[in-house]
């Protein structure tokens, strides 16, 4: 499939796909005799994996490291698990921070509803 089709299938912009390939975050995409990228299902799976990892706030640097470890094969499994575990802990801390922010916003909105609005209405 073409890069247009891969973009539609993954929801990633073509520029992002090219960027990921340039950084070796995905394995090199095969090319036809005219040097046009030709994507197969494995390429799509890699792109979707990277998209999912980026959606989980995994950094480009961590993904480059993960792919490098992946290329080493089975001997790097422990290192890959550690990398993913570290990224999971970062994500959990981020989620905790978001939940705290959500709580603060909810509390502020409730204060407006229960205190500010009634007080302002008395002043009118």
From TrEMBL:
<dbReference type="InterPro" id="IPR047057">
    <property type="entry name" value="MerR_fam"/>
</dbReference>
<feature type="domain" description="HTH merR-type">
    <location>
        <begin position="1"/>
        <end position="69"/>
    </location>
</feature>
<dbReference type="InterPro" id="IPR009061">
    <property type="entry name" value="DNA-bd_dom_put_sf"/>
</dbReference>
<dbReference type="InterPro" id="IPR000551">
    <property type="entry name" value="MerR-type_HTH_dom"/>
</dbReference>
<dbReference type="Pfam" id="PF13411">
    <property type="entry name" value="MerR_1"/>
</dbReference>
<keyword id="KW-0238">DNA-binding</keyword>
<protein>
    <submittedName>
        <fullName>MerR family transcriptional regulator</fullName>
    </submittedName>
</protein>
């Amino acid at each position: 499939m073409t890069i247009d089709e891969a973009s539609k299938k993954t929801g990633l912009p073509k520029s992002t796909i090219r960027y990921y390939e340039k950084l070796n975050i995905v394995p090199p995409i095969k090319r036809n005799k005219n040097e046009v990228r030709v994507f197969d299902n494995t390429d799509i799976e890699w792109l979707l994996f990277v998209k999912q990892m980026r959606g989980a706030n995994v950094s480009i640097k961590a993904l480059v490291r993960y792919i490098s470890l992946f290329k080493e094969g089975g001997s790097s499994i422990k290192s890959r698990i550690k990398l993913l575990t570290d990224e999971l802990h970062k994500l959990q801390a981020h989620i905790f921070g978001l939940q705290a922010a959500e709580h603060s916003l909810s509390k502020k909105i409730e204060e407006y509803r229960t205190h500010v609005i009634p007080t302002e209405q008395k002043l009118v």
